[in-house]
Amino acid sequence: MGEQPEQKRPYDDITAVILAGGSSERYGQNKAFLEIGGIRLIDLVAGQMKNIFKRVILVTNQKRDYEYLKIPIVEDLVKGLGPIGRIYTGLMSIADKAGFFIPCDMPFINRRLVRYMVDIRDNHAAVVPSVANEIEPLHAIYTRACLGPIRSLIDSKRYQIRLFYDHVSVRYVKEDEIRKFGSPSRAFLNINTVDELAKIESLMKD
């Protein structure tokens, strides 16, 4: 949103993996179906991903709710683990070596930034944005090389995504790189509260 459509062809060697949960504890309902400018969040995100990637899948445990999207849908292989479980499921479910992982509630996806991240991945196991010492683990690229370390965390009942970064090659995308394409706070803005939804609607008007 806010960007002109690219003329570049969609990537055909990396799959977009959209992560969608159910009813948010903090928001009180399924954020995927909140509307921004009259369009559901999940529709916004799916549309953006289809512009960038040839293959797009959705990881959710509410398959019926999303069938209208007409994209492959997979359920968590291990239920109840949150984001790390969905990353594990996504990597296990794609045919490509790598996936670009994005949540369903991040409407201001910067397509130029996403393409930059794909283009610099080289042989790294992960490509992760890092701004002011904070990382964005759910706007990131992960390859199947991450599966072993992720599985080890799951088996040891440790579910923080960043814990496996010490065991793989990570290419951190620094703030100065990100700012070449736009504001990090806008690119990574997601919705957890009613106030954040109002903020996003205000930004859209601007």
Report on the structure:
It is a single chain. With 206 residues, this protein is of the alpha/beta class. It contains eight helices and ten strands. The chain has helices at 41-52, 63-66, 83-93, 111-119, 147-155, 175-178, 184-187, 194-205, and strands spanning 11-19, 35-36, 39-40, 53-59, 73-74, 98-103, 126-131, 134-135, 140-143, 170-173. Strands 1, 4, 5, 6, 7, 8, 9 and 10 form an eight-stranded mixed β-sheet that branches. Strands 2-3 form a two-stranded antiparallel ribbon. Strand 4, helix 2 and strand 5 form a beta-alpha-beta unit. The radius of gyration is 16 Å and the shape is globular. The mean pLDDT is 89.
Q: Could you list some keywords that capture this structure?
A:
206 residues; alpha/beta; Spore Coat Polysaccharide Biosynthesis Protein SpsA, Chain A
Radius of gyration from CA coordinates = 16 Å
CATH topology description: Spore Coat Polysaccharide Biosynthesis Protein SpsA, Chain A
Average of the residue pLDDT scores: 89
Strand content: 15-25%
Q: How many separate domains? A: 1
The largest β sheet comes out as: 8 strands, mixed
| Alpha carbon gap, first and last residue | 12 Å
What are the segments in which pLDDT stays under 50 over at least 5 consecutive residues? none
Class from helix and strand fractions: alpha/beta
CATH architecture identity: Alpha-Beta Complex
Number of strands: 10
Q: What is the H/E order?
A: EEEHEHEHEHEEEHEHHH
* Global shape: globular
Discrete helix count = 8
The helix content, as a percent range, equals 25-40%
